[in-house]
Amino acid sequence: MRAILQRVTKGKVTISGRVTGEINAGLVILLGVGTDDTEADLELLVNKIVNLRIFADAEGKFNLSALDVQAEMLVVSQFTLYADCRKGRRPSFTDAARPEIAAPMCDRFVEKLRALGCKVETGEFGADMLVEIHNSGPVTIWLDTATLAR
Protein backbone atom coordinates (compact mmCIF):
# COMPACT_ATOMS: atom_id res chain seq x y z
CA MET A 1 0.00 0.00 0.00
CA ARG A 2 1.10 3.52 -0.63
CA ALA A 3 0.07 6.75 1.02
CA ILE A 4 0.91 10.39 0.74
CA LEU A 5 0.33 12.19 4.02
CA GLN A 6 -0.16 15.90 4.02
CA ARG A 7 -0.38 17.70 7.32
CA VAL A 8 -3.13 20.27 6.87
CA THR A 9 -4.93 23.12 8.56
CA LYS A 10 -8.04 21.93 6.71
CA GLY A 11 -9.08 19.66 3.87
CA LYS A 12 -12.23 18.95 1.88
CA VAL A 13 -13.51 16.63 -0.84
CA THR A 14 -16.26 17.76 -3.19
CA ILE A 15 -18.01 15.54 -5.76
CA SER A 16 -20.38 17.16 -8.26
CA GLY A 17 -20.73 20.21 -6.00
CA ARG A 18 -21.50 18.09 -2.90
CA VAL A 19 -19.05 18.01 0.04
CA THR A 20 -18.46 14.36 1.00
CA GLY A 21 -15.72 14.90 3.57
CA GLU A 22 -14.24 17.85 5.42
CA ILE A 23 -11.69 18.16 8.22
CA ASN A 24 -9.92 20.77 10.26
CA ALA A 25 -6.30 20.37 11.45
CA GLY A 26 -4.91 16.94 10.77
CA LEU A 27 -3.94 14.78 7.80
CA VAL A 28 -5.13 14.37 4.26
CA ILE A 29 -4.20 10.80 3.30
CA LEU A 30 -4.04 9.92 -0.38
CA LEU A 31 -4.25 6.11 -0.34
CA GLY A 32 -3.31 3.62 -3.04
CA VAL A 33 -3.77 -0.14 -2.94
CA GLY A 34 -1.45 -2.38 -4.94
CA THR A 35 -2.07 -5.77 -6.49
CA ASP A 36 0.02 -7.60 -3.88
CA ASP A 37 -1.20 -5.77 -0.76
CA THR A 38 -2.41 -7.77 2.22
CA GLU A 39 -4.07 -7.20 5.59
CA ALA A 40 -0.55 -7.07 7.06
CA ASP A 41 0.25 -4.12 4.76
CA LEU A 42 -2.95 -2.42 5.85
CA GLU A 43 -2.14 -2.88 9.56
CA LEU A 44 1.43 -1.68 9.05
CA LEU A 45 0.34 1.47 7.23
CA VAL A 46 -2.39 2.38 9.73
CA ASN A 47 -0.03 1.95 12.68
CA LYS A 48 2.75 3.91 10.98
CA ILE A 49 0.45 6.82 10.12
CA VAL A 50 -1.18 7.25 13.53
CA ASN A 51 2.14 6.99 15.39
CA LEU A 52 4.37 8.99 13.05
CA ARG A 53 5.64 12.03 14.97
CA ILE A 54 4.98 14.82 12.47
CA PHE A 55 3.15 17.31 14.68
CA ALA A 56 4.95 20.00 16.64
CA ASP A 57 5.19 20.07 20.41
CA ALA A 58 5.31 23.29 22.48
CA GLU A 59 8.92 23.82 21.37
CA GLY A 60 8.10 23.43 17.68
CA LYS A 61 9.78 20.02 17.31
CA PHE A 62 8.17 17.05 15.55
CA ASN A 63 7.48 15.07 18.71
CA LEU A 64 3.74 14.43 18.57
CA SER A 65 1.73 11.86 16.63
CA ALA A 66 -1.71 12.10 15.06
CA LEU A 67 -3.04 10.21 18.08
CA ASP A 68 -1.33 12.65 20.47
CA VAL A 69 -2.92 15.71 18.88
CA GLN A 70 -6.24 14.03 17.98
CA ALA A 71 -5.66 14.89 14.33
CA GLU A 72 -8.65 14.67 12.03
CA MET A 73 -8.11 12.61 8.86
CA LEU A 74 -9.44 12.83 5.34
CA VAL A 75 -8.83 9.63 3.35
CA VAL A 76 -8.97 9.81 -0.44
CA SER A 77 -8.48 6.71 -2.59
CA GLN A 78 -5.83 7.32 -5.25
CA PHE A 79 -4.94 4.49 -7.63
CA THR A 80 -2.58 6.87 -9.47
CA LEU A 81 -0.03 6.39 -6.67
CA TYR A 82 0.79 3.19 -8.55
CA ALA A 83 1.53 4.94 -11.86
CA ASP A 84 4.46 3.37 -13.70
CA CYS A 85 6.01 6.07 -15.90
CA ARG A 86 9.17 4.24 -16.95
CA LYS A 87 8.07 3.73 -20.56
CA GLY A 88 6.51 6.12 -23.00
CA ARG A 89 4.32 9.05 -22.10
CA ARG A 90 1.22 7.33 -20.78
CA PRO A 91 1.42 5.94 -17.24
CA SER A 92 0.58 2.29 -16.68
CA PHE A 93 -1.55 1.41 -13.67
CA THR A 94 -1.21 -2.38 -13.79
CA ASP A 95 0.32 -2.42 -10.29
CA ALA A 96 -2.82 -0.83 -8.80
CA ALA A 97 -5.33 -3.28 -7.34
CA ARG A 98 -8.59 -3.76 -9.21
CA PRO A 99 -11.54 -1.81 -7.75
CA GLU A 100 -13.19 -4.95 -6.32
CA ILE A 101 -10.05 -5.50 -4.22
CA ALA A 102 -9.03 -1.89 -3.55
CA ALA A 103 -12.40 -0.51 -2.44
CA PRO A 104 -12.85 -2.94 0.49
CA MET A 105 -9.21 -2.41 1.50
CA CYS A 106 -9.77 1.36 1.60
CA ASP A 107 -12.92 0.80 3.68
CA ARG A 108 -11.02 -1.40 6.16
CA PHE A 109 -8.25 1.21 6.35
CA VAL A 110 -10.82 3.83 7.39
CA GLU A 111 -12.47 1.42 9.85
CA LYS A 112 -9.12 0.70 11.53
CA LEU A 113 -8.38 4.43 11.90
CA ARG A 114 -11.81 4.98 13.44
CA ALA A 115 -11.31 2.01 15.79
CA LEU A 116 -8.23 3.82 17.12
CA GLY A 117 -10.41 6.84 17.95
CA CYS A 118 -9.58 8.99 14.92
CA LYS A 119 -12.17 11.25 13.36
CA VAL A 120 -12.09 10.19 9.69
CA GLU A 121 -13.84 11.65 6.68
CA THR A 122 -13.59 10.26 3.15
CA GLY A 123 -14.03 10.90 -0.51
CA GLU A 124 -15.87 8.37 -2.64
CA PHE A 125 -14.05 5.44 -4.20
CA GLY A 126 -13.80 5.76 -7.98
CA ALA A 127 -15.44 9.19 -8.13
CA ASP A 128 -14.05 12.25 -9.88
CA MET A 129 -13.20 14.30 -6.80
CA LEU A 130 -12.10 17.86 -6.17
CA VAL A 131 -9.69 17.68 -3.23
CA GLU A 132 -8.89 20.86 -1.34
CA ILE A 133 -5.70 20.65 0.72
CA HIS A 134 -4.37 23.44 2.92
CA ASN A 135 -0.91 21.99 3.52
CA SER A 136 0.59 23.04 6.84
CA GLY A 137 4.34 23.50 7.03
CA PRO A 138 4.29 22.29 4.31
CA VAL A 139 4.65 18.72 5.48
CA THR A 140 4.21 15.99 2.87
CA ILE A 141 5.37 12.40 3.48
CA TRP A 142 5.41 9.39 1.13
CA LEU A 143 4.90 5.92 2.64
CA ASP A 144 5.11 2.59 0.84
CA THR A 145 4.63 -0.66 2.78
CA ALA A 146 7.06 -2.38 0.40
CA THR A 147 9.87 -0.29 1.92
CA LEU A 148 8.71 0.09 5.54
CA ALA A 149 10.37 -1.95 8.26
CA ARG A 150 8.03 -4.60 9.57
Give structural notes.
The model has no long low-confidence stretch (mean pLDDT 96). The chain is globular and about 45 Å long. It is α/β, with parallel strands linked by helices. The two termini are 13 Å apart. The chain contains three helices and eight strands, in the order βββαββαβαββ. Strands 1, 2, 3, 6, 7 and 8 form a six-stranded mixed sheet that branches. A two-stranded antiparallel sheet has the order 4-5. A hairpin with a 2-residue loop joins strand 1 (2-15) and strand 2 (18-23). The protein has a single domain (2-144), classed as D-tyrosyl-tRNA(Tyr) deacylase (D-tyrosyl-trna(Tyr) Deacylase, Chain: A, 3-Layer(bba) Sandwich).
The whole-number mean of residue pLDDT values reads 96
The gyration radius over C-alpha positions equals 15 Å
Model regions low in confidence, pLDDT < 50 over at least 5 residues: none
- SSE succession: EEEHEEHEHEE
Number of beta-strand segments: 8
Q: Which outline best applies?
A: globular
CATH class: Alpha Beta
**Whole-number total of structural domains:** 1
Alpha-beta content class: alpha/beta
Q: How many H/I helices?
A: 3
- CA distance, first residue to last residue: 13 Å
Helix content range: 10-25%
Report the biggest beta sheet as strand number plus sense, adding barrel if it closes: 6 strands, mixed
Annotated CATH architecture: 3-Layer(bba) Sandwich
The CATH topology comes to D-tyrosyl-trna(Tyr) Deacylase, Chain: A
Strand content: 35-45%
The CATH superfamily bears the name: D-tyrosyl-tRNA(Tyr) deacylase
